[in-house]
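Q: Entry one of two.
A:
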Amino acid sequence: MKGTGTHCCLVSEQLIPNIIPLLDLKTRPRQVELLIPGDMQSAARPILRLCRELGISVQQHAVSAWNSDVIRDVLHQLLSDYAKSPISLNVSGGFRLLALEAYKAFSDQGREIFFIDTRHDRRVMLFPELVQDALPNVLNIRSFLTAYGCTLGAHSKGYLNREERSLTEQLVGDLKKRGKSYCHLNWYAQEALAELRTEMASSHLRSMDFLELLQLFKAAGFLDWDSQMGTLYFPDEDSRFYANGGWLQQHVLCVLNKLRPAVDVGDLAANARVHDAGNLSSEVDVMFTARNRLFLIECRTKNADADTMAAGEAINTLQSLANALGGAYVKTMFISYRPLKRAHSNRCRQYGVQLVQGSEFDKLPSLLRQWIESA
């Protein structure tokens, strides 16, 4: 299948199988003919928008999803218009009757018919002969969001400097040893949100474990403190955010970067704002693409007992965003280095959110790889 002719696409709620061939430079057509059932106008808009961005010409054809006579008339006229020109059928989308009628009409005239098998990451030529090849990973974060009417706002690229990597690795290695001290620092960093400074309890300043943790952060340039006054200072918001649990995001990014060659991780974004068509926004701790799917991760370092409402809201928000962004093509994970309450664990299970918590944190690299490969 070459990207020089025209694709006929059957519009349905599943956008990704129609979008992948448009993004793949090897198969991108010059023109697209969209067959749009009456109630699928809204589903067609993302395809139209993407075609405009890619410079692909588009023609729209209203068609019934259930009336065979109407479907055949539309297909007959379409194929008559291409009597002397190449046109291929992407039979991946569409309702069953529409797909069957389209397959018959195209095969009767000896036209190419192909199917995008996203479950097994392959492109299957169905007619005139059966040929399969692997799907390239062509969906990036922006194209995925654009397909569902959203835009990517402020975000970081997920690149760590040497100091951040070194400190993050040490923090993760000392996690079991300094668990309580991490909670204290996390709390103080939250309290410093407004002025980048806060007062620390004298009992904490008498803890050698807590003081050693502060010294680690100070050596990396993330904070300083006045031992006489008990005041904790952060040089900037990025440093405060890192101490407030941002180190867990950085650890996830480190793991994903190491996994990149093995599982074909695409682009990464951290602390990302996602805006929908109504300009409502959601924040995602870590998001990335792989295997033409979008992966969303929420990272939590707060005590679930003290932050029970926020944890529940975070799970709800994560799954609501996934549902708005393609459902089956979006995978979600909730990572908490502290165990969640049973109610929150059950909610993750109910929503299909992969949960990594407590003692499972040590196995994060293998769990992330399994999650991506099984998506």
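Q: Entry two of two.
A:
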Amino acid sequence: MDRNTRIGFGLILLLLIIWSVWMARYQPAQRPAPGAEKQASEQPAATSEPAPEAPAPSAQVAPAAPAGPRQFVVVETDRARYLLDSWGAQLRRIELLDYAGVGSEHVELLAAAHGDTAAALGVELELPAGTFASGSAAFTLVNPPAGGRLRIRGDEQGALEFRLQDGQGGSLVKRFQFHGDSYDIGLAVEADLQGGFGQAQAIVLDWSVGLAPTEKNRKDDLSSFQSVYRVGDQQEKKSLRNFRGEAPALRSEEGTLQWVATKSKYFLAALVPNTLQNGNALLVGDHGAERLGWRARFALGGNRTRYAEEFQVYAGPLLFETLKAHGRGLEHLVDMGTLIRPISLAIKWLMDFLSRFIPNYGLNIILLSIFTKVLFYRLTHKSLKSMKDMQAIQPELKSLQDKYKSDRERLNREMLALYKRAGVNPLSGCLPLLLQMPVFFALYRVLRGAVELRGAGFMLWIDDLSNMDVIYALPFAIPLLGGFIDNAISVLPILMGVSVWVQQKLGGSGLGMGAESPQAAQMAILNKIMPVFMTFVFYRMPSGLVLYWLVNNILQAAQQYYIHKGLDKPRVVSAGA
């Protein structure tokens, strides 16, 4: 093994170590056991128990509320199952029925990660004496459904109303509206700002609890967590790493609150006011607890006697068209890139179109790869032919370099003349590849984040195109390599590494470099490194994305073979004037 090869493999090892450190950035924390509310959600009937006096922390006030029974209600639609608690009139659990969870029948957006503390859509009132958090108060459930269950199907709608009175003329009402074939929840909040609720300065809707991680690759899911707001024309987002240690919440300037949301890799919880209101958005998080959420604050001015507003709450998958229907740019939460967004949208449209006729997304990805190869066939052909032509005139170039090595200006003129006689453009080999890069980046964005691929099988052992195609999980850990390959055997990344190697063998010395040039020697080292490096880079990526690149590489190798077969003929170009 020569010195350059040893350096090359040393660089591979260094890259692998850097990759391991980067992947360890989001070390998963231990998940608390599901709380008591999970058991309650599985009970068909509402449960009741005496309500304790609402706790009153030093920074909060708790107007006197009559004691009442605690009631749980399970609401089930075609899309989701919810558990609501009369204490605080909050959501305690959200299960998405169309998506399988990790170790559970359905994805659990809420409750699975945070046990008894899981509660969403709480309401707070900012009063002169402090903050009243209604999450600790006993609401009364008006007209509870029989058996504690409310089933809503198809076009049906159903509602639950919770009331809280302070005994001094003040009251707070929360009304939830559910739709049979939708992930939307209508939320109406009404408050009589009298008695103990008088002179309220602001009302706050709270989803600080965030979303639970839902994916097998927990680190990858956590790295995708974001909380985002749009207030006026300003949009801001934060991830978990922005809330390490004692990092404060991010508070927007006061303005027209368009929406506020928190999202994971594939799912979203967003609040959209039906009518635009003046307020603030707060992004809150805790890196250690793996929690990233939001609070929406609406100023009241201190002299209002009544508040009544309606909101749409979306708790479901990141489906582009569904979010677009909400308006106000909510579909931008589906990450399609910025500069490449039009290309990403075109690719997404093509995937959706193919899925209408072919329900197998693996086949759709193969067709997508074939389509892009046909689209860029001429560009690729021109690039490969240019490389081959450059290789053909290398002897003439070498002769010119030796002849005019002391006269740089003359050498450049003679080289340009040679290019002109040979009909070769030295830049034409790279330019077509550069033109394709935006499409490749867009494909990466779409395939890596498409919720449609989640749980979608292809064939044989590939049963989830959004995860690694693990054919065998090793019963032991591999030192050093275990962090890179997740101690599992995946087939597609290995095949892709082989396809890279085949491409390089068919591509000659590459980029039109002479076999004896220093550049060719450096390229030879890179050729040895690249198949191994690409295998490790793609090893833990979603199998749908790896499948696309594998098919693309196979088609590329076939095109290279075809072009080289037709061009591998001796070619002599006179270097004379």
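A: Comment on entry two: The CA atoms of residues 28 and 218 lie 7 Å apart. The radius of gyration is 30 Å.
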